[in-house]
Design goal:
By secondary structure, the chain is α+β, with helices and mostly antiparallel strands. It is about 35% helix and about 20% strand. It has eight helices and nine strands. α1 runs antiparallel to α5 and α4 packs antiparallel against α5. Pfam families: HTH_31 (PF13560).
Length: about 260
């Protein structure tokens, strides 16, 4: 919890202690809670230690799962919010290569990465009617999630469709309806951490996944700490798992490997 103001750290610890005491009294294990509230046990452990402050919907659902009245814990959560430090400055994007260097890179690009980049470009240009990346002779994968693990690199290869839970935003490609890819899955999912915009049903190239990122809550107050690393415009960015249809997310969890440390 380095870098936090003392009052914020103290408020987070108080909330964590109360939530941990609820868990102890209930006799529930972290694994059991993980299955019920769809938050990884490692994230729950950080919440209970006060290292991370969960969003209010997570606190509410934890209280309900543990048989407590959420309203009794609202003041504790609000105390952490009032003492929250300012958002960190956004991470600077990687510098773009000069036109000369881009031509040189294109000229010398070869081997495995060259085929992967070409496959990504072809898949995106073909439109959303293609649901697998066309860089292997295998048949197109199932819509929204498919691919194969690459044990040689530790990364996988799968197509994933972006899902916007807000029905009014499933067709318009407007600024209001845009969703965001992030630079870092362990930083708050805010505009300061926004790397690029995507829209409902955009097809992305997924590489791997983590289960212990920051918790993200969607418009229907569903939440998840799963994040998916995607390759986009030559960069490695992160899509919150909550921005994938729940059924497809379950499929991705069996297809994609965990991201290498």
């Amino acid at each position: 919890m380095s870098g936090q103001r003392p009052e914020h750290a103290a408020a987070a610890r108080r909330l964590g202690e109360e939530l941990r005491e609820l868990q102890r009294r209930s006799g529930r294990t972290l694994r059991a809670l993980e299955a019920q509230v769809r938050i990884s046990d490692s994230s729950l452990s950080r919440y209970f230690r006060g290292e991370t402050v969960p969003p209010w919907p997570v606190v509410r659902d934890l209280c309900r799962a543990l048989g407590a009245d959420p309203s009794e814990y609202r003041a504790l959560w609000e105390a952490t919010d009032r003492s929250r430090p300012d958002e960190p400055a956004p991470a600077a994007p990687p510098p773009k290569p000069s036109p000369t260097r881009r031509r040189r890179l294109r000229k010398h690009l070869s081997g495995r990465w060259g085929f992967a980049a070409a496959g990504t470009a072809i898949g995106l240009a073909a439109g959303l009617t293609l649901f697998g990346l066309q860089q292997s002779p295998a048949p197109p994968p199932a819509r929204g999630a498919a691919g194969a693990k690459d044990n040689g690199t530790g990364y996988g290869d799968a197509g994933v469709l972006v899902h916007n839970a807000e029905e009014d935003c499933q067709k318009p490609r407007t600024h209001k309806c845009a969703l965001h890819l992030a630079w870092d899955p362990y930083r708050p999912y805010t505009t300061a951490n926004s790397a690029d915009r995507v829209w409902h049903h955009d097809l992305l190239h997924a590489r791997c996944r983590i289960a212990d990122g920051v918790t993200v809550t969607d418009e229907n107050e569903k939440h998840s700490s799963i994040w998916i690393q995607v390759a986009r415009n030559g960069q490695r960015l992160w899509l919150p798992g909550i921005r994938v249809d729940p059924n497809r997310l379950d499929q991705l969890s069996t297809v994609l490997p965990r991201c290498p440390p």
